[in-house]
Amino acid sequence: MNIIETIKKRYIRLSRGQRKVAQFVVDNPNIVATHIASEVGQLIGVSESTVIRFCYAMELSGYHELQEKLRNDLFNGISSKGEQKVVVSKKQSNFIKEIMNEDVSNILNTIELIDPQQFELATQLLHESQFVYVLGFRQSAPAANFMTSTLKNLRKHVKQIQHEMEDIVQQLSNIDKDSVLVIVAVDHVLEDVLTIANLAKNKKAKVIALTNSTLSPIRDYADAMFTINMQKQISIETSTSLCSLINALIEGMISNNRKQYMTFQKSNEQIESSFSYIESSIRSTC
């Protein structure tokens, strides 16, 4: 097993800082092989000691041994990208592992960004609010759809704000102090989103925001805010960690009264089953 494979295999066990080093080594083996530890640390944005501790986590004697192994692999034509070309039969398998490891990394990093008190507040708001509004435009729409459909299967009074409708204000006409607005904004925040958030706050509603930046302007309106961590600023890479966070928030809501939500879900399934039976009967008579 070469050093790149070893890093990928042990990636999940590393600390947050060491994972940054690991990702940099995998993506830039040439740089690591030709630069000293302090320089690599500066490029990554971590301390030299973090780079050294990463080497120990890889069961190496130190940074020099890491460089030697990288140079040896590069000399033999092995790299994080080259592995896929060396063994053609394993190309697809390696690709799957690489993508899923990135998902795992994004989820693990997102976990570290979650404030437990903010999480508890958000789950309480989802549980106690009479009305839940979900907003997510453009690239944030799929996650908003996922959250809306899941919540509708567990509780009443869940509504998704539609951007294409002419009067957004009309959709929020009933929002009040007994409501919570969940804003999914993992791309550039539209002015419409901030306008809606401001409207919700003016009507005393609570706001939960899911973003991809701690500097998002939506923070000025949020009662609870969560940041999705990702290695690259590409929207598709947010989907796994974003849906995982949404799932955690919903599970947190359910934990407040599991019997209540399971009863509603069961009742909802029975209603859907009845409609399916009626529809099937109508078709069979046509």
Automatic annotation (TrEMBL):
DNA-binding is among the record's keywords: yes
Alphabetical GO biological process terms: carbohydrate derivative metabolic process
Keyword Coiled coil appears in the UniProt entry: yes
InterPro entries, per database record: Homeodomain-like_sf (IPR009057), HTH_RpiR (IPR000281), RpiR-like (IPR047640), RpiR-like_SIS (IPR035472), SIS_dom (IPR001347), SIS_dom_sf (IPR046348), WH-like_DNA-bd_sf (IPR036388)
Source species, domain of life: Bacteria
Molecular function GO terms recorded: carbohydrate derivative binding; DNA binding; DNA-binding transcription factor activity
CDD domains assigned: SIS_RpiR
Domain annotation HTH rpiR-type: ranges: 1-77
Chain ranges of the SIS domain: 121-259
Coiled coil regions, renumbered to chain: 151-178
UniProt entry keywords in alphabetical sequence: Coiled coil, DNA-binding, Transcription, Transcription regulation
UniProt xrefs under PANTHER family: GLUCOKINASE, RPIR-FAMILY TRANSCRIPTIONAL REGULATOR
Name of the featured protein: Transcriptional regulator
Source organism of this protein record: Ureibacillus massiliensis 4400831 = CIP 108448 = CCUG 49529
